[in-house]
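Run log // design_07
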């Protein structure tokens, strides 16, 4: 038996390794040619200290308090030289990936489909040549064919599959948008590097509030697909806000999640004045169904910077201090002529 261990480095890179039954994370990393920080490997120096965000493991009793105190252990800190997983785990490594003699993985993928699901949104489906592990919510950099430029896009697909999908804002004149709507063909080869990012679904131990703006829905779809495969009894509520009616996409998928996941609900809203949508305004104006639970809630937000700032202001004004608040800001890519990554 082996377990999948996600190593999240402080420079945003995530690498997945397999850890055999009874094997320490440090030994598994070395076997996978990743040199995690270490000095003694005996639970004495504390050099290999990290934090386990989720998963089950045994630390034994061979380490000393100077290396890892009881208080640190209660906070999820671990010594990778002593940590023996008994499930898949996510471990935060307080070092850059390059210092551990590893880096961003590169994977080739072929274009399976390019669908203009609305005038403002492109759905890109790829088939990866090799496995590309990622946590639900993370993103990957995709190189624009014929250029050295890359664009960062969050996975909307479920982790563990080579069939990948993305929701991409259709930016007039945008470098990637121009390729996708103009010259992309089934079978084209794209280069992906990653995964990256600290925006990913943690263990669901309390109510979850998801907030999406536009194509910021993508990583939340990946999270929902993970929850479908790994059900939780905690309530999960999504508020999905866009500017214009035509920007609302993925509603069939959300309806399916609502039918299949007993504890999932969602609502949509449109801020544009010309909208015919029954719920006008911004996500902060439609928090009535949110499981805020006096702050005992984990919040996941992906949207443009003004939306992130507005939500942070809403919680501050309402005196709500969420148990955790995870967010990712994005802006549309610049036009092709400028070739400037947003």
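design_07 sequence
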């Amino acid at each position: 038996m082996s377990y999948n261990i996600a190593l999240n480095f402080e420079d945003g890179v995530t690498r997945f390794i397999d850890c055999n039954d009874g094997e320490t994370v440090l030994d598994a990393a070395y076997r996978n040619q990743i040199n995690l920080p270490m000095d003694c490997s005996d639970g004495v120096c504390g050099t290999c200290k990290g934090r386990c965000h989720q998963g089950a493991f045994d630390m034994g009793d061979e380490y000393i308090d100077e290396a890892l105190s009881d208080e640190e252990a209660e906070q999820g800190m671990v010594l990778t030289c002593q940590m023996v997983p008994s499930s898949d785990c996510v471990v935060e490594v307080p070092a850059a990936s390059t210092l551990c003699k590893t880096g961003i993985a590169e994977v080739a993928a072929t274009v399976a489909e390019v669908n203009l699901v609305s005038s403002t949104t492109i759905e890109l489906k790829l088939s990866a040549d090799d496995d590309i592990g990622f946590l639900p919510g993370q993103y990957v950099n995709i190189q624009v064919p014929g250029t050295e430029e890359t664009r960062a896009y969050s996975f909307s697909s479920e982790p563990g599959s080579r069939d990948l999908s993305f929701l991409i804002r259709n930016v007039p004149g945008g470098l990637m948008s121009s390729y996708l709507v103009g010259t992309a063909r089934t079978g084209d080869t794209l280069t992906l590097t990653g995964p990256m990012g600290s925006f990913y679904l943690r263990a669901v131990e309390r109510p979850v509030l998801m907030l999406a703006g536009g194509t910021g829905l993508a990583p939340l779809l990946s999270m929902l697909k993970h929850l479908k495969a790994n059900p939780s009894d905690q309530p999960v509520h999504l508020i999905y806000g866009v500017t214009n009616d035509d920007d609302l996409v993925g509603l069939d998928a959300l309806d399916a999640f609502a039918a299949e996941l007993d504890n999932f609900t969602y609502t949509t809203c449109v801020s544009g004045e010309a909208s015919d949508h029954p719920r006008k305004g911004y996500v902060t104006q439609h928090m009535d169904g949110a499981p805020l639970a006096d702050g005992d809630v984990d919040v996941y937000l992906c949207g443009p910077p003004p939306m992130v700032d507005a939500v942070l202001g809403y919680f501050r004004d309402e005196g709500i201090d969420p148990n955790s608040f995870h967010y990712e800001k994005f802006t549309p890519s610049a036009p092709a002529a400028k070739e400037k990554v947003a």
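Residues 105-196 form a domain with the Elongation Factor Tu (Ef-tu); domain 3 fold (CATH 2.40.30.10).
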